[in-house]
User: Fold this.
Amino acid sequence: MGSLSAHGKQAKASYPAQLLGVWQGGGNTCRLPGNPDSDVKMEITPGKLVDHEQWNEPLVVVQVSKQPQAWKIKSRLYIDESSYEQYELYVLSGSDKGTLTIIDKSRSMTYARCR
Assistant:
């Protein structure tokens, strides 16, 4: 979640470090670099989530659970020529935190961390 800096400005939101990396949907394992032609591959960096035909910029990040690790993230979704705000729940699971499930108001999708 954004916080005030020493200069009184709102700090920019970023995706949690635990979520950063390359993720592949539709399977239990993924080896880097993942399938470059996949429609269900995404990469999460601190300031951007890049998916097949869209990308998200985090606006507000709130950790809602420590066990399992989960965050409610408000982001701006950019797709085609338009953008809109959305809320999603990101949940890490698995013994090695290698499974990520993202839930929004209409669907859920599970991804494996590419290693």
Observations:
- The chain has one domain: 17-113.
- Residues 43 and 50 are 5 Å apart (CA to CA).
